[in-house]
Design brief:
The protein is an alpha+beta fold and about 190 residues long. The radius of gyration is 20 Å and the shape is elongated.
């Protein structure tokens, strides 16, 4: 049934419990809670100022978070189509849903020496590349729990200044998201 809420069963201490399906509004509420706000939203078009602010940040935050890590659920493979000959080789169109190309390591049989420029992969090789990449994944209900958690932190970090007007909360959210040294936070 389209649009129906679904839940995932999980066992904890011998007791079955249902986990709620992630939604954009639930992630908004998580971000607001991380910011220390008591404001909440029931849906993403409720017209509340904090919801409007989070709506503005949402699309870019999703793309940024996807691009920052090789999330297993978002990895796809594709064989690229030759687009045109360029000065130093060939230009291949990246898939429309490509957020980030994941180059194969040297020595791997799918390795290709290439660079991304705009929406194209440029290479001197005329062999059709088979690539791995991070795809846009905007069906929130399909996101794994660790990505949902990281998205709550990402939104909290991005919205901290405009929602709280506190530089100390902005820095606190950055540290919680990125870690104190840029490594090891929620990401």
């Amino acid at each position: 049934m389209p649009g129906a809420a679904r839940s995932i069963s999980q066992t904890r201490g011998g007791m079955a419990m249902a986990l709620k399906t992630p939604t954009q509004a639930r992630i908004y509420n998580r971000a607001l809670a991380l910011l220390g706000s008591t404001n909440r939203t029931a849906n993403t078009d409720d017209g509340k100022p904090w919801t409007d602010q989070l709506n503005e940040l949402w699309d870019q935050a999703v793309r940024d978070l996807l691009a920052e890590h090789p999330w297993n659920f978002a990895i796809r493979r594709a064989t690229l189509n030759k687009s045109e000959k360029v000065e130093d080789g060939w230009q291949y169109q990246l898939p429309a849903d490509c957020v980030r190309w994941l180059p194969a390591p040297r020595g791997d049989r799918s390795y290709v020496s290439a660079a991304v420029e705009g929406r194209f992969l440029l290479t001197s090789s005329d062999s059709t590349p088979r690539i791995r990449y991070i795809a846009e994944c905007d069906t929130v209900a399909d996101w794994p729990a660790h990505f949902v958690t990281a998205m709550g932190y990402r939104l909290a970090m991005d919205a901290a200044g405009s929602i709280t007007q506190s530089t100390s909360i902005v820095e606190d959210m950055r540290v919680k998201y990125e870690g104190p040294d840029g490594e090891g936070g929620a990401l």
